[in-house]
Amino acid sequence: MIAAILLAIVLFSWILPHIIPVSHWLRYYVCYLTAFIYSFIGCLFFIVLIIILPKKYFRRCVVLVAQIISKILGIEWEFRNESNLMKNHGKGIFVANHQSMFDILGLLYISQNFGDCVPVTKKELYYFWPIGLLGYLSGSIFIDRGNSLAAITNLNFAANAHFHRYSQAQILIFPEGTRNKFGNNFLPFKKGAFRLAIYHQLPIFPIVISPYYFIQKNQFFGKGKIIINFLEPISTTNLENDDVEKLMEKTRTIMENKFNILKYEVNLNNLQNMLMKKEKKLKF
């Protein structure tokens, strides 16, 4: 009975985003609800798989679910310069701008190209099961954003263990500290990722995610393409604690410059697509 109900929910949430017109405001809420349903059920499924399957097969399942959710929602991903992920043998601190819950979806989509990567996230997420339980089982690092000292201590302890355990250990941090809901410019960066990189003498790997131009809060959830660009790693060799601020600002400048370029590109492509659709309508 429970299985039948879950199957009905999955099928219903699969079909609904396709039958609601893209321009209708209701599609916004339906798409978020669909993403939540698939994430929730997927986590239940993954909790079992992460225990019984080897890591490479587990990752394939994660990628498959990320592809399915993206297809349902109408999000297309383009990944650029993935080869940068494996420079310096892939070991380092990944930093990415954070605009939406779908950032994680895009990164999971390409997660097979990563090494042994774990994200840093707020501790409140741990109590949101089954997502929190899956995060715990997969090695996510939970920190208390309201207690800086405790957050730094926990992050350092977990990072030491992770880097000691894996030869291609990576840690993913969103240096803005929270979602940038407006997505026009970056929020101020936190220092944690850069302190960690200098302490371990590991490079910073900047990841820039283009704007979600086809999503407008509470109004519109269209279809479109998001570009995730993996930039050249930034060396921390011979840097010391006094260089944290300099490294942080350098990284932020590089990422923001690339973000502005991507913003211009996706907006231009969107405008061209709109003009092409109007031309087709006029012909008919």
TrEMBL record:
Pfam families attached to this UniProt entry? Acyltransferase
UniProt-listed InterPro entries:
Plipid/glycerol_acylTrfase
The protein's Enzyme Commission number? 2.3.1.51
Specify the protein name: 1-acylglycerol-3-phosphate O-acyltransferase
Q: What sections of the protein cross the membrane?
A: 27-53, 125-143, 196-215
Please name the top-level EC class of this enzyme: transferase
A GO BP term here is: phosphatidic acid biosynthetic process
**A GO CC term assigned to this protein in UniProt:** endoplasmic reticulum
Q: Does the record carry rRNA-binding as a key word?
A: no
